[in-house]
Fold each of these.
Amino acid sequence: MKRWPTKPLGDICELVNGAPLKPSDWDGAGLPIIRIQNLNDRTKPFNYTSKKLAEKFRVRSGDTLLSWSGTPGTSFGCFRWDGPEGWLNQHIFNVHLRPEILPRFFIHQVNSKLQELIAKAHGGVGLQHITKGALSAVTISVPPLAEQDRILKLLDEADELRRLRAQADRRAATLIPALFHEMFSDETAESSKPLGEVCLKITDGVHITPTYVDEGVPFLRVTDIQEEEISWDSVKRIPEKEYDQITKRVKPERGDILYSKNGTIGIAKEVTWERPFAHFVSLALLKPDRKALNPTFLTAWLNAPDALRQAVGRSKTGTVTNLHLNEIRKMRVPCPPMETQVSFVRQMTEIRELEVSQATSRTRLDALFQSMLHLAFNGEL
């Protein structure tokens, strides 16, 4: 096993902090100000300043930038700047590297140590900072330049696999909407019906906040149905007596559909589980007529663009967006023959299985890349 020499970060680079620019310095003209948000999301708009700053604050394409302030897990990190020339904002170091280390090798290595760096941060629960001294003391492996180049090529190959996986994932995410459009875009107005005619019941949850307890029956809100799977360990819970009282009006059952109608509207979740639960007023409960609508088909339609357009168009906007039950009942859903709905559900299930397989592949590739980083910087790759 090779052990590459290590050096403190401060011995292989100079860290030059950005300028202490304030919102009063923004004037919409001049050069862009490169802030932490522009590093984390290249689509974020720039602020500009026409002030003439010291040359040390200028950033050019190819510079190595290291953000040292922000929210742990989202803001800290090392980046190669490939954007326009601009002025560097405070809380970001421009890293001037010595010739003995390649910029991309340095960036990979620093980012592999983010948890170590975050542990050195100080500040409040929100905004935290890593001091220049703490950064300078972090040790970096410095193999010969030829070895750095070899390692980078191997990492590039692994990263390309991750890029291709992400590209395939993005394509897979468009398959279900495309399938729905292909199968039902020709549905005429005559074949569509108001939801109120093809659902046995459309109601909502309890209108008052119940008593929350550590142990009890799950109580679902809009935030609980936004992910692919419900996190039952983290949902709110209510006493069983309150659950019995709440569900006297209507008890959710397998095959029903939860539909967000307050705040974030237009998210549908089919009830595919048997465990009892209650829900808040922000969620509508739809009980489809199984002779007219397959629940999985209806859920897919409610999550499709056409349903969202109808929901948005029928919503009342104010402090909080509200989609009233009467407006949900008026939304028109395509009602193709049941065999067509079942065919769609079968194809959609196959796509979902593909997505699960891709997620497993993505996890493995991420783990492989992290393992390669560890091996590379310990002289084992």
Amino acid sequence: MRSIVVTEAGGPDVLALVEVDEGEPGPGQVLVDVAAAGVNYIDTYHRGGLYDMPMPFTPGLEGAGTVTATGDGVTRWQVGDRVAWPRSIGSYAERVVLGAEEIVAVPDGVSLETAAAGMLQGMTAHFLTHDTFPLSSDNRCLVHAGAGGVGLLAIQMAKVQGAEVFTTVGSQDKAELARDAGADHVIRYRDVDFVAAIEGIAGPRPLDVVYDGVGAATFDGGLRLLRRRGMMVTFGNASGPVEPISPLVLSRNGSLYMTRPTLFDHIATREELEHRAEVLFGLISHDRLTVRVGHRFPLADAEAAHRALEGRETTGKILLLP
């Protein structure tokens, strides 16, 4: 089968398409024919060396497909089952061997592409808005990169919770996508200072929470917008990692809270994974959440997909299609 393999950390050019052995599912495992693999910023951190990875490896944590074989002891899954997964490395491939406990069923009415596009980013948006800082109609929040994969989903989930949503985007096209997702206030950060723009709308320090997946470029400004005892949720590094800060910065800005959560700590048990997937697919099935696939690339074009993502040329979700 064909698979993307990384043999050394580096830029998108280290993503090589190679022929590899398919492998067989061992005890407690299944073999899945990959219909679509999701492309996420964490994949670029793995590829580039920000997060250490054993070499060589196949990137990609997220995907969806059809079970084609099962290993010993697997009784829950059958050949032909449609499944998805959010945290199994090796998904940039035509087929992948997965732990039977790492996959969830994709319900009728949800396509495999939608499932692949929604797993990691959809469950991330859910835990951010429902667990890290549970939003309500009394809250104002800022979602950075509102036309991105997590951004579009977080806006929709914040509106389901009744919150007033501010968001930042880089272009008029992206602004329209964010508004269509439900954002109340859309700030084009390339045209105006987002801190001044938000304070011009809502006054000084108006926000209860900032959801920041951008990182270095937006972190300091977000702190200046938080109310006393507000929360900074930094969950990504699209513009580079945030520099270390002194805890005194949080006290000087009004006894702020700060957290750096990850999805994997919110789906650490089988029960948590199933619950969050059930909620996500339920929202999709009942038309309360739209998962936008903005870009589809053949598996062989993984390098181009990473360049587009890191160049901020994308909206919604990027998929690789084997």
Amino acid sequence: MSQQILTEQYGHGNNGRSYRGEIEFEIRDRNKNTIGRILEPNLVKIGAKEILSHRIAYNKVWDPTAGSGVGAWVEHDIDLDEYALKYIIFGASFDEDGNPLSTADTRYYTPDTVNGGYVPVQLGAGAQYDGGLINPVPIAEPNRPLKRIERIYFESSYQPAGTPLLQEDVRALNNVIVLETTLTKEEYNGLGTTQSDYFTITEVALVGAREIDSVGSCECDPRDIFLTGVETGGPLQCSAEGTATISIAISETEVDMIKEGDQIKIVAMDSTAADDEILDQLNPYYLVVSKALGGRDITLDRVPVDVDNNAITGTIGILRDGFRIFSHRILKAPVQKSDEMEIIVRWRIILG
């Protein structure tokens, strides 16, 4: 079956940018008969440029002094596989008590005063919601697992093989990549055990991060799993002096846990990823723009401040953030999950 190639446009005229692709939900009953299909255009976040820029690089560099002085390829210190797309993360419409909501949830939808019904809120291409999801489904494996990508394959598109407009023959190109996972009948049926607990899936994100196996029933935000500190489990201790440069404490030995190009989260020193003690910051996430190997000074993209714009000083903790959303979508029509159906989720990205 041929697929319609969809395009989203941001900006106007020659200054606009378009991102082509789509997300598909194929809904099947317990006998694996397809009973519904939803296709929506995707939204590629501006953070996708980070993933793409890292994946373009090779995992080695040329060292002219290696190989007994004649030069050789040697490994560099960036884990490129960490930036590869591995997960599809889901958010759902439910309140603080776990009761399911639908399009009346104002976090996701607003009333359409012209045509009636509801329309999704507008997502930008930047770092809204601290770069995460609006209301992610907390993980509790096996019923609410961290969904890994289970299949990757290519679909073909076509372009002229010869000179355009002069030759009629075309050739196929494998420039449509498809990333797929399946929500089984037992998965994502809600936060309780009865049909009234079934929530509606309202948002989906495609995520690049490090490889993780089972995480158990942590009842946590998926992003928290990718926040890492020192080997003892706590954050890396640093000191802030009211500038964009923070310094790793002399007592810390894992000084190269943070590297140039990383994103970090500033928290209270006695905090953990789950505690979320963010020192009253509006956005606790920062980009490391400069950090020498073996050095203790870390230059951030801005001065750490609280919501009143007061510079944060004294002892702080930092966690490395490895959760990188490539694309994020609020569904126009929420998908109701139950133990009567499985849902195949396919994320297509058209590279051309």
Amino acid sequence: MEGYPRALSELEARSSTESACRDYLFQLRWPEGFACDRCGGRACWLASRGRVVCRGCRRHVSIAAGTTFQDTHKPLATRFRVTWLVTSQKTGASALNLQGVPGLGSYKTAWTWLHKLRRAMVRPGRERLSGRVEADESHVGGLEEGAHGRGTETRAVVAIAAEEDGKGIGRIRMRRIEDCSAKELHAFAKDAVEPGSRVHTDGREGYTGLENKGYGHKATPVRNRKASKVLPRVHKAASLLKRWLMYYLDEFTFRFNRRTSRYRGKLFYRLIRNAVAVDPAPYETLVRGSRGRRKRSPDR
């Protein structure tokens, strides 16, 4: 049974102390009980500062080590509240919104933690799409004068795959790709879709050969028809994505795949669980490649 709070008041009651937050992370990190990665020992005791000590080899392990919560200098209760706000708002949260959380601190701290959570929205080893899947690509970005559809060269290209669920959409996967070559599209299909699935695409040459990669492949040339009629699910997902340009692809995918969840607390649980499984992301890693001089964050 997944243990997650149904409301903010329940979350605050559960995470009223740092010890309670550490116990929650312990249960998520070792759901089957503690297992030492050095000696394989199962017995341990909890030491101060959120450390676990293996009774077999006496190794000290931080509950947060190797997770998104590593190097967290703010109280875990504060981080939990931020995570709740990110998952409880259907339209997402900005760093400016999160800066108002009591005890969080500067805008840079709020921005850094928001990006850490977005990174945690991709669960390590997540299942690939299966069954009948539509696949296409879309150009995302600002409008360009004189550029139409696939003719544009400077807008980002995003590969999209969407499961068929009757007439509706099941789960989706998205990724920014360099171009629409077979190399890029085949690599996306390999990572996003389970072999044996039936993949429906348009007539783009880049999809040719999917049948040799273990997929059933149906290609429907668009010609004079609207692409949204040929592949309605991926085009619906692309349309929604373009309304959410302020969000990153991982956050969009995380929210879309959990859009029918009755309790927002379940999203909180999922994201905290993923954050325990995702490797640490220092501030320098998050800003790598962005414009401007990179500075060390006072609180990662």
